Amino acid sequence: MKLVILDGHTLNSGDLSWDELGAYGELCVYDRTPAALIVERSKDADAVFTNKCILNKKEIEVLPQLKYIGVLATGYNVVDCKYATSRGIVVCNVPAYSTDSVVQSIVGLIINCMSKLSEQIASVQRGVWQRSQDFSYYPTDYHEISNKTVGIIGFGRIGRKLADVMLVLGAKILVFNKGKAFEPKENVTYVSTCDELFAKSDIISLNCPLTADNEKMINSTSILKMKKGAILINTARGALIDELALAEALNNGYLAAAGLDVLSIEPPKEDNPLLTAKNAFITPHTAWATIEARKRLMQITVSNFKAFIDGNIKNKVN
């Protein structure tokens, strides 16, 4: 069998090994593949693995040997699953490998927004503490998480674990989760609308998938429904936010801060307004990428393909 990895660098920049996957056939690993080369590099492949390289009908229909598509991520919108199914091609993803890592990053972003840790560290590096007349100096807008209300939009594995962690830190939890109910839990309140969550939350975390219905759900109208001084966290998808509206709300002080691991275009354009917005703390889409999470991603990728070879398919999404 011929196996092709189209964009392997994101998962494995050199600190992991492809050897286990390579045991199943001839393995060709490309760190990155431009759209124009996807078909050429995949043309003789029995299995193709992709993270962000797009495999739509026009690519798949000219790959006659293709039998398996492995998505090196949880989200699989990069594959035309309907057409793959019509061709008898199995598409598998890797669910739940990064829950702990993403929750850790969300909590880190919240703490940074509440305590301005990155600003404090930068001030020490600039020599401000060394020149200070006092043993301590601190931001004026420096707050505890305890007794704050954290609104979680999307209550899958990440949302539920985030709630557990924030409860330990003394927060109260509001949850909006479209289309699914959960068991009652102390200090967790389920609300029926995002508007109610916006109005009552001190901190809002987006943990929902991107759909046609919720694109730019955070916009100039919804922001005005939030508490003045609220904090917004997004580790889900950048397109959930109207970035110009959020930048304006940060710059005019209506929102206190935003912690963002995702943007609408990645890498961002230089003119993205959030890059220079006041109190916008941005990380480069790394919430998922701890070494532990990437090892799990690699292990499950191999396990998925072994299951396919053995005729006991798992994590199939089409």
Supply the key terms:
318 residues; alpha/beta; Rossmann fold; 7-stranded parallel sheet; 5-stranded parallel sheet; 30% helix; globular
Main sheet makeup:
7 strands, parallel
Low-confidence stretches: none
Mean pLDDT equals 96
What is the name of the CATH architecture of the largest domain? Answer: 3-Layer(aba) Sandwich
Total helices: the number is 11
Coarse morphology: globular
Number of strands: 12
- Main structural class: alpha/beta
Q: Please estimate the helix content.
A: 25-40%
How would you portray this structure in words?
With 318 residues, this protein is α/β, with parallel strands linked by helices. It has 11 helices and 12 strands. The chain has helices spanning 19-22, 38-42, 57-60, 81-86, 99-115, 117-125, 157-168, 194-200, 220-223, 243-251, 291-309; strands spanning 2-5, 26-29, 47-50, 68-71, 90-92, 149-153, 172-176, 188-190, 203-206, 231-234, 257-260, 280-282. Helix 5 (99-115) packs across helix 7. The model has no long low-confidence stretch (mean pLDDT 96).
Please write out the topology:
Layout: E1 2-5, H1 19-22, E2 26-29, H2 38-42, E3 47-50, H3 57-60, E4 68-71, H4 81-86, E5 90-92, H5 99-115, H6 117-125, E6 149-153, H7 157-168, E7 172-176, E8 188-190, H8 194-200, E9 203-206, H9 220-223, E10 231-234, H10 243-251, E11 257-260, E12 280-282, H11 291-309
Parallel strand pairs: 1-2, 1-3, 3-4, 4-5, 6-7, 6-9, 7-8, 9-10, 10-11, 11-12
Helix pairs in contact: 5-7
